[in-house]
Amino acid sequence: MAGFDEIWDMVCKDFIPKLEENKGLEFFVKNRAKFEGWMKVELCTSFSNFAHSEITPEKNWIDIVIDDFAIELKTPNTNYPTENVIPKTRPITDNMKSILKDIKGLNNNSDYTNKAVMFIVFPLPKSSNKLWQKHISKIESKVKRIEQKEFHFVNGVRGVIYFGKI
Fold first, then answer.
1. CA separation (Å) from 58 to 47, 52, 64, 113, 138?
2. Contact between residue 128 and residue 90 where contact means Cβ atoms under 8 Å apart
């Protein structure tokens, strides 16, 4: 069975390189377009490296279930000015509300022993760290533990992946 630490370790070693090397994601990032479907497929591929793990996408309206570990996914985009990204208005507050709704839903779900949210925030230039902190602090207060790792897409745009244990 996969645990929180094992899943996070796999994400760092196997999934983040996919984010950094995928040329197609450049077009999504440039246009601030979400890519949750791609994320779901690639995470299932990465999770398949676990021996004896049952992986089920879209089980009981949960994005991915690994054995008894339920994971909800999101790819919240921001409106922070960023080089190589088309300026667009994006509802950061709505994106955060969506993640908080997933956390609440998983908290109320007694079907799974282990639960988590995983989300990729982009674009997230370092100049926006202070603004971003007010948003991420809302999520940090609702999870037992959160891990994060910075990475850069092919076009150099900074993103951060978060994994929060519920």
1. 15, 19, 6, 17, 26
2. no
Which amino acid is it at 57?
A: P
Tens of pLDDT, residues 77-128 = 999 999 999 999 888 999 999 999 999 999 999 999 999 999 999 999 999 9
Predicted model pTM = 0.96
CB 147 within 8 A of CB 157: no
Check residue 90 and give its pLDDT.
81
The CA-based dihedral angle spanning residues 42, 56, 37, 61, taken in that order and rounded to the nearest 10 degrees:
-160
Confidence of residue 141 (pLDDT cuts 50, 70, 90): very high
Structure token digits, residue 89 = 């208005």
What tokens appear for 96 in the block?
């955060």
Distance from C-alpha of 140 to C-alpha of 161, rounded to nearest angstrom: 14
List the chain domain ranges: 4-165
